[in-house]
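Run: sequence + arginine -> complex structure.
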Amino acid sequence: MKKVEKTITGNVDPDVLDFTVGDDPVLDRALVKWDCAGTAAHVMQLAKIGVVTQAESRKVRKALGEVVAEFRAGAFRIFESDQDVHMAVERRLTEKLGDLGKKIHTGRSRNDQVAVDVRLHVKDELLGLENELADLADELCAFGRRHDRVPMVGRTHLQPAMPSSVGVWATGHAEMILDQVENLEAAYRLNDLCPLGSAAGYGVPLPLDRKLTSDLLGFARPLHNVFGASMARGENEAAVLSALAQLMAALSRLAEDVILFSMPEFGYFKLPRAYCTGSSIMPQKYNPDVLELVRAKTATVLGLQTAALSQLHAMPGGYNRDLQDSKGLYMKGLAIARTTLRILAKIVAGMDVDEAKLRAGFIPGVFATDAALRQVAAGVPWREAYHDVRDHLERLETEDADAAVAAKRHLGATAGLDWKLYARRVASVRKEAAKRQKFFEAKIKELI
Ligand code: ARG
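>> structure
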């Protein structure tokens, strides 16, 4: 080894440093605020157990607030020699506070520190994402409401099946998307546990008050077992990515439907021209590139989920550096899901329908089941009525699509949509997220 690079944790070969640091100096920029908040809570605890004085704790918290401000102003940077945000913040605190800066890592490891940072970051992102999800669902419901009883052929196997409506199509997708909140909430609850105090994964011989730091940071409770807390890193990121993968799959189906139904051969839906992109050779083109990219990005998130789970399956218990690589995965997944929700809300808000094209899809076969049911009403057993219609398909005629849409009055059907239910569900997602956001933001603000 010719040359070595100096770091807080020792001198290493520059290539080794480069390889192990990886993307951390860039990715960890998203964690600066959270690392400072976690450090503030840790220092308040150190003051409680007498490792630093209350006055020192206040000094450190003030300096942490300054670090966040310096970062926002572009004056605080994470260098490769820092390795990551944790060492960068410690370096900066030591530059500002001298020996006091060197005390703050007492009773803490980067392992529990990064786990806290990631959880705070995930919390913030998931709450933002839930709002964006509610916005998209809201736009879908508004679109459905605008064109509620406009007849639309319902399809199975993509073949014309039964009379349906634009209202049912739109709110069906809205409901699938709103249901994703259940998965996201499960991930949120798992994430809402505080690993701080587990240190390297085995605790420390100091009277740490883990309940205090958990409360200060706004977590539901501490993760109990210190070893378990170290293993929950990676598991947590995988849980988030699993929820995101399911969400993206739902969004991709919506995108695929819109691509299909807006192609000229169907022409049911019209996309605003500003939301389509052109071709460099074919002057007539207005392509649904956004929706195609939603499909591709869904594939990417499925891959991210697989990568996160694959990292776990062969990793021994306790901290392993493999875990560092879970950071880029969940961050990328969240960024993709959030931009996808936002762009889809825009597309849906700008989308229009072509009623004539929608009505033209009502070929006689679409009314076959209704015709059989009319026989049933006249006393014919279902299976006989079914065979009679199937054996004489040529007798079927195009019927009144509006009447067919109005005839299905039961719960959730074309004439039985509960618009208040959707309004309530959208409002409840927003309200729940806002409540927690407010609580969380207040906690973080108090700390730094
Ligand atoms: N940047 C590291 C990560 O994300 C921090 C933890 C390093 N811990 C260690 N034992 N090397 O995992």
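>> summary
Residues 24, 84, 110-111, 114, 319, 321, 323-324, 327 surround arginine (CB under 6 Å). The longest strand covers residues 159-165.
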